[in-house]
């Protein structure tokens, strides 16, 4: 069992390599990180081509959704993109927030930050900035973002619960997020689950869908809902690196599902949060004294 830091180092090394690859290489592999298949598959990614603000040079083909399509970004918003890569989702968000808004991309891979900053300079965007740092310890102040987006990144972080708490911290009261990510229904075969390369490829690091949504609710978010969901099929020639033909057949006919989901949730406004806490305290006090045989109520 690898430590959290070891897993982070694996991801950082792999994504530094990805930053130097072309989009075609990335799109023909599993989230850009695994051995290329002998057919050109867009295993995870959705098509940005018709998206306003899309920048082809900034799209490395690493996403698993289109969170900015669902993020309800308004003019003047401050938007944070978690795991911003070469900057594509930041530039799409910048189109939505306009020149009067601000977009901050956070990534822990130095070469990705460099690539994103070069892209921003080429575009002349002075309200888009990129900060190097971990998304489970974001280099931003509390209550700063109106909207947070992320595209196929949380599955790469060992401590997802910590990231979700960080998202809550940096969102303004009344702010919200729209995040695309990979989740599981059922247990992956050990051959996939234990492989470092598949971890960096977004699959082995994914957790159960129910657990993922539970972390969001327990962090204090409200109005949690899935905006989009699609199944992910890993090509047999990628699976063949980890399993024999019988294992692949059993896996493909099993009840295990790998899904891309785009999740939306809101941080309560201050008054709503205080009301929620007050109601919770009332319920706790009531349950502690009002037993069937008690007369306290």
Give a quick set of tags describing it.
globular, 37% helix, Rossmann fold, 20% strand, 297 residues, 8 strands, 12 helices, alpha/beta
Task: Write up what this structure looks like.
With 297 residues, this protein is of the alpha/beta class. The chain has one domain (4-287): Vaccinia Virus protein VP39 (Rossmann fold), CATH 3.40.50. 37% of the residues lie in helices and 20% in strands. The chain has helices at 4-19, 23-27, 67-70, 88-97, 110-123, 160-170, 190-193, 196-200, 209-218, 236-239, 245-252, 270-289; strands at residues 78-82, 102-107, 128-132, 145-151, 171-185, 207-208, 222-231, 257-266. Strands 1, 2, 3, 4, 5, 6, 7 and 8 form an 8-stranded mixed β-sheet that branches. Strand 2, helix 5 and strand 3 form a beta-alpha-beta unit. The longest helix has 20 residues, at 270-289. The relative contact order is 0.14. Mean pLDDT is 84; it is low at 32-42.
In summary, what is this structure?
This protein has 297 residues and is an alpha/beta fold. The chain has helices at 4-19, 23-27, 67-70, 88-97, 110-123, 160-170, 190-193, 196-200, 209-218, 236-239, 245-252, 270-289, and strands at 78-82, 102-107, 128-132, 145-151, 171-185, 207-208, 222-231, 257-266. It is 37% helix and 20% strand.
């Amino acid at each position: 069992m690898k430590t959290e830091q070891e897993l982070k180092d694996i991801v950082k090394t792999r994504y530094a390599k990805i930053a130097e690859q072309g989009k075609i290489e990335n799109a023909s592999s599993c989230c850009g990180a695994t051995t290329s298949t002998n057919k050109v598959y867009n295993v995870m990614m959705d098509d940005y081509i018709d998206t306003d603000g899309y920048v082809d040079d900034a799209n490395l083909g690493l996403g698993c959704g289109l969170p900015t399509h669902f993020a309800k970004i308004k003019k003047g918003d401050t938007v944070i993109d978690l795991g911003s890569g070469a900057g594509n989702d930041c530039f799409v968000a910048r189109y939505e927030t306009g020149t009067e808004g601000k977009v901050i991309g956070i990534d822990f891979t130095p070469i990705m930050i460099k690539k994103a900053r070069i892209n921003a300079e080429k575009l002349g965007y002075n309200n888009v900035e990129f900060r190097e740092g971990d998304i489970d310890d974001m280099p931003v102040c509390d209550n700063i973002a109106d909207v947070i987006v992320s595209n196929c990144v949380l599955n790469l972080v060992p401590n997802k619960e910590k990231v979700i708490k960080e998202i809550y911290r940096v969102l303004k009261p009344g702010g919200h997020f729209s995040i695309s990510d990979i989740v599981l229904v059922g247990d992956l075969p050990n051959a996939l689950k234990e492989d470092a390369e598949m971890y960096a490829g977004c699959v082995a690091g994914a957790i159960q869908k129910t657990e993922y949504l539970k972390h969001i609710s327990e962090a204090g978010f409200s109005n949690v809902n899935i905006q989009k969901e699609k199944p992910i099929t890993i090509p047999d020639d990628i699976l063949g690196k980890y399993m024999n033909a019988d294992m692949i057949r059993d896996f493909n006919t099993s009840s295990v599902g790998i899904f891309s989901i785009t999740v939306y949730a809101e941080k309560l406004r201050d008054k709503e949060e205080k009301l929620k806490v007050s109601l919770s305290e009332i319920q706790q006090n009531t349950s502690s004294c009002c037993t069937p045989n008690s007369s306290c109520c």
